[in-house]
Amino acid sequence: MPPGKASEAATVLEILDGNQLYIDARQAKVNQTALSPQQITTQNSRGQLQFQSGAAARINRFTQLRLGKSCFLLSKGEVLVSGKQSGCTKSLRLSSRGTNYIIIANDDGSTDVLVLEGTVLADPFESSSQPGEQSQLLSKLRDTLNNQRQQLGNPGFQPVPPAVQEEIEAYGRSLVNAMREFGGCFHGGSAGVGSPFTAVKLPSGWSVLGEVLGCPAEGGLYTPESLAKLWWGSAIHQRIVFKSEKATSIGCVWSQPRSKNDTEIIVCLTLKSDQKTPIIPSPIVIKAGYRFRFSADGKVLSTVKLGPDDYNAILKGPLFAGFVSNLPERDALYRWITENVKGVVLPPAPGS
Fold this sequence. Notes:
- Helices cover about 25% and strands about 35% of the residues.
- It is α+β, with helices and mostly antiparallel strands.
- The chain folds into two domains: about 10-125 and about 285-340, Jelly Rolls, CATH 2.60.120; about 160-275, CATH 3.40.33.10.
- Helix 1 (about 130-150) packs across helix 4.
């Protein structure tokens, strides 16, 4: 991987039930590595992946996920994660510091999250039109910029409400499309795209102060850290992003490549709000032994405590049965079950 290029990578450790595991629609082999933004899918087969972080993921039959920079995006099917690996769906960011949890992307758009051991933080992303991967990148970008703003004595940027983000996205997508169509890098007011100061119709009390870009580049080049460094290196961008005392928020569109040959583009607007500082919502904490169901827009629909029958069914099910490769956090899982859930029959370690 080229120096400075951040990309999620996953190596195929095992394929079960035939050979119907694919990377970008091509049949995959054991020890083959997929890189962001490649897509991994299964038909009537199962598989286990190993991430760069050391975490593992077991993929059930008829599952589809795409590798990203900060999480994989599950759009269909079921995945078991073991270790420090974050997952996203169309409505959620799921962060783990090292645990065992299952994500199920249901056909109706809802998501089930089962935490078998440890703790998972669930963040509904801020926008209904930004996929979870982009939303998590933008959240990390805001945090990175805020660290530098606060070192200068300026307040950190606050998240923007959905109504504001929707207007930014409409403008940002038009500018991204124009850059891809005409080539090059330019601000609003060019190539048929209006100036953000007049084209973005914000709710009362909000106004646009400035615009900064991540120009069209090879996919995987930009990270929250590299963007912050890029903007810090320019006096104009320093003034807009870091030194402005009037700016209260930043809203962005992070357009990732749609294919290997596509470009990555970021459009961000700094904003001023006359309203009171919004409260940043806390993530939803899902503790071990619980199953949460989330709606298509990230709202909690139900919570259920997992019992012995649930654990027995999971441990005998397709995410455990037949695998030879071990799970990084298997010992932690078995220890937690032994101490907290009576009546569960633990399967032997793979290969024993």
